[in-house]
Amino acid sequence: MHGWTGEILRINLTRKKAIVHEFDANFAQTWLGGRGFAVKLLWDELKPGMDAFSPENRLILAAGPLTGASLPSSGKLVVAAKSPLTGGYGDGNVGTWACVNMRRAGYDAIVFEGRAEIPTVVKVEDDMTEFLNGEDYWGRGVFETERDLKKKYGNVTGVVSIGKAGENKVKFANVISQEGRGGGRPGIGAVMGSKNLKAVAIKGTKELPAADMPELKKLGFEGYKEVLAKPSYRFWKRQGTVSTVEWGQENSCLPTHNFREGVFDHADAIGGFAMEKLKVSNRGCPQCNMTCGNVITDTDNESVEVDYENIALLGSNIGLGDLKKVAHLNRMCDDYGLDTISMGNMIGFAMEASERKLIEDRIDWGDFEKARELIERVAENKDETGRLLSQGVKYASEKLGKDSGNWAMHVKGLEISGYDCHATPGMALAFGTSLSGAHHKDAWVISWEVKYGRESYDQTKVDKIIELQRLRTIFEALTTCRLPWVEVGFELEWYPRFLKAATGLTMTMEDLYPTADRIYNIARAFWVREFGKQWSSSMDMVPNRWFIDPLTKGPLKGAKLDKSRYEAMVQMYYKKRGWDSRGIPTKSTLSKLGLSDVAQELGQQVQLTA
Ligand code: PTT
Ligand code: SF4
């Protein structure tokens, strides 16, 4: 077997034991890596219905056969666990030297189980795993934690850590690396906190495995050159993801005032061109030559790396039109290890709840000081409101009652990322059917949809969403950044060539679709196994706001989604996927993907359709 190290490091935090588990070529080729490995391990090892904060939950760091190689944007790591926020499958993707080092240390994945008795830092250096007392770090922010660990163990050490939000088990706490890379939106940082695991520091010195290393290096070199030659490269380097603010404004999908509107009066003040005026440097993930981390200074003159989602959710969505202030909130979230998207949703929700007098606190739209305070109260679990909001918007709306469920912006409990869908049914369906809840990562169909035609709820849209979900799942499994393809047009054909040089396997992108489908279906089965008889197509429903509150501003004033047409589109999607009318994979779909064992187990929870 080439391309994979063939080893998974299994770390039991309760017993302070680390063992190496070898896997074979069949496992590697069936699941590819990254998300594929993570979801298969979670399916096999977790008991249905278990508490996500139980020591039995697994925290998985997983890479794929291309991770860490010298080729465009390969420095990405999948972090996964059963999500405490949604109760279903949860993962995220973070750019970090930790994944490059993990592969160089000889592992394709690290699986943590159990719970350390005291706060712990795990250090992996090639074949050595150490359990270090992490009490000094507990209560400290991620910036200080990572800097300190790097000072101790060397600058080349890759570190992923959690902040106070993860320690306090805020349900949307994530994992942070390199002071500006965050991953694991559905509370993967909280699972890490529940294990008393403050940080993982990894250093590896071995050669990466490859079937044909000279060819892989040559292709990687050519790939880097090709990225640089793309016409959109220069503008991408200037603005990265932030130019999406202007795009969102032009297309009426920039989330504004808790997703009430798709246009924001102060969009120009938080967009790509405003950012360029404040930009001081550019950072990025390992192995990337189109780095998109735009660093600006915040209200305290501190450096912050800003991205579109962070600006949309902590800016327009809460009515804040000042980029330095937005950057400050972003920096607070990073240091606390709080997902910016969910936190922005929570602040927007709290502002609307305050306006409607559902909570006693007075929190006005755009109130920077109150937003700061709220982030602190949530991350530190400080008081009643802080504790309420730390459970996510679904829980908070269930507690507050009245009609707040209509404007609690989530799918399956995961807060919506930065795209208002009053006028984009396809993007709504992409949120509805993402693997982890309302995440854009599985199918960012909106840019295609705006050109294709917003008004239709048709099969072409459904097919496009599934195609994107397949392609993006391949990126999560390979595991590399998808942005060279999405943003600068680096052709997909490169990836099978990289894969062949790395693993020796000759496959086209289409040949990898069954693998992507296998991963998507087992993740779906994981959700259904968790929810059992409660599972129905309503799990894929998007927030009611988009059906009942039309846009009141902008060129698409009056637009809203049509519920019955959305439901019909959901059924078209299920049919194409080979799922029944409840959205459950049929026996024959699972068996075609080589998942008959999954069908058998799932059949014990719910009646499966043949
Ligand atoms: C991702 C989600 C995103 S998606 C953003 S900005 W984006 C937010 N970033 C956060 C942050 O920063 N700090 C913080 N405290 N919370 C944050 N939460 C949000 O998390 C990120 C880039 C981006 S920028 C995107 S789209 C792409 N995502 C990729 C992906 O998912 N897979 C993949 N193979 N390649 C990708 N490339 C791009 O990576 P989640 P990063 Mg992120 C500060 O994890 O849970 O998936 O949520 O990883 O290294 O920061 O790079 O406009
Ligand atoms: Fe990281 Fe951006 Fe490069 Fe992707 S394009 S690897 S997110 S720096």
What does this structure look like?
By secondary structure, the chain is α+β, with helices and mostly antiparallel strands. Helix 12 (308-314) runs parallel beside helix 14 and helix 13 packs parallel to helix 15 (368-379). Strands 2-1-6-3-4-5 form a 6-stranded mixed sheet. A hairpin with a 2-residue loop joins strand 7 and strand 8. 42% of the residues lie in helices and 13% in strands. The mean pLDDT is 97. The chain is built from 27 helices and 17 strands. Bound molecules: tungstopterin and iron/sulfur cluster (SF4).
- Class based on secondary structure composition and strand pairing: alpha+beta
Strand content: 5-15%
Q: Could you tell me how far the N terminus lies from the C terminus, measured between alpha carbons in angstroms?
A: 36 Å
Largest sheet properties: 6 strands, mixed
- Strand order in space, largest sheet: 2-1-6-3-4-5
Which descriptor suits the 3D outline? globular
Q: How many distinct beta strands?
A: 17
Which ions and ligands are bound to the chains? Answer: tungstopterin, iron/sulfur cluster
Low-confidence stretches: none
**Percent of residues in helical segments?**
40-55%
Number of helices: 27
- Average pLDDT confidence is 97
Radius of gyration: 22 Å
